[in-house]
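Table S2 (text version). Query chain:
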Amino acid sequence: MKRSFELDIMAAKHYADYTVGLGASGYLTSAAWRMDAVYTFLDAHTKKNGFLTYTLNMDYSWVWKEKNMYGLVELYYNSLGEDDSASALENPAIAERLGRGELFTLGRYYLAGEIQAELHPLFNIFLTGITNLADRSVIVQPRAAWNFVQNLEVIFGAQLYAGETGSEFGGFAIPGTDFVHKSPDSVFAWVTWYF
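Corresponding C-alpha cell output:
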C-alpha cells in the first residue's frame, strides 16, 4: 500500500489580483487523490473582496476482462460563480476572466467523471461527463485515441450539451439582448504527427 503525501503552497500576482493556494495529494488504499484550493483577492474595483476555488479529485485504475481501465471523479467549487447563468454574464469579475480564458464555467458547483478503456495498447476510448449541480445541465464528451502507425495519433470525438432552457449547458437568454447562448454539439478529429 502506498502511503506518500505531498503538499504544495503557492502565492502569486496575476494581473491586478493576488492569489494564494494550497495543494495536496496522496493515496487512499490504491486510489490516488488530489486537492487544490486557491483564494484570489480581487482588485478593489469589484464588489467582492475575493473568491475561493476548490477541486477534489480521486482516480483509480484496474483490469476488467483483461483490459486496462481507468476512472476518475472530481468535484469543483468556485465561489465567484452564480447559480443563474444569465446573472453570471452580468458579473464583471466573471466576464473579465472568461474573456482572458481563465474561467470556463459560470456556476459554483460541478461534478465530473471520466472512464477510459484500453481496448488495445494502440486504441483507447474515453467517456467524460461534467454536470452543473445547480441546474443539472451536462456536457458529455466521448472520444477515442488511435496510434495506428508509429509517430502518428488520431483522436476523434464529440462534445454534446444537454439541459433545460435557462441552464448553463442547455442554453439561456443573454441579458439585455434577444440572443440565446447555447454551445452547439460538435464532433472533432485531431491528427498528430511526431517527427
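Notes on Table S2: Residues 92-99 form the longest helix (8 residues). The mean pLDDT is 91.
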